[in-house]
Design brief:
The chain has 182 residues and is of the alpha+beta class. Helices cover 40% and strands 21% of the residues.
């Protein structure tokens, strides 16, 4: 799914809204979903600079994405302690023995979009986020009741995204097996 297809879908619900306004609302919903829901991640190896304290600059910012937060940081599969002072900078209490691997949550920069596979997966949540914003604007199509409805659905999508991120992006749910009491 592309952004143009999403714009068409949203504009069916608010036909009076200009297409540029619909597109900007969808882009804001994408940024919020990526920032609050951790839907776009990237794994990379980082170099640590010896200093007081040891630190690392994360090189994840590209023309279409920027780092939000570090979700995991490990050396050879073992987690290490760190302090994230800025979105692109980490400080360590101790100097790691080798270069750590980091799992970053990233978001699209202003005016850019999520990758198409993420747009397709989260299309319903993004639609609700954009419609929530559009129905709250002081225009002829303003509708506070529909704003509340779509805002609740968008919050549900954010919660689902956080749950998937916490579960390690597994395709299946986790199961808990009850103990047998004998």
């Amino acid at each position: 799914m592309t952004l143009d297809e999403l714009v068409t879908r949203v504009s069916r619900d608010v036909p009076e809204a200009p297409l540029l306004l619909v597109k900007e609302s969808l882009q804001r919903a994408q940024r919020q979903l990526a920032e609050d829901g951790n839907v776009w991640t990237e794994r990379q190896s980082i170099a640590v600079t010896d200093g007081d304290p040891p630190f690392s600059e994360i090189i994840a910012q590209t023309a279409d994405s920027e780092p939000v937060r570090v979700m995991q940081l490990s050396v050879d599969g073992s987690p290490i302690e760190f302090l994230q002072t800025e979105p692109g900078r980490l400080e360590f209490k101790r100097l790691p023995q080798s270069d750590p691997e980091v799992l970053l949550a990233i978001r699209p920069t202003t005016g850019t979009n999520l990758p198409e596979d993420l747009l397709a997966y989260w299309q319903d949540g993004l639609r609700h986020g954009a419609l929530s914003e559009l129905f709250m604007l002081p225009q002829s199509w303003q509708n506070p009741a529909l704003h509340e409805y779509h805002q609740a659905r968008f919050r549900d999508s954010l919660a689902r995204a956080r749950m998937i991120a916490r579960g390690g992006y597994q395709s299946r749910g986790s199961r808990v097996r009850p103990r047998s009491f004998l």
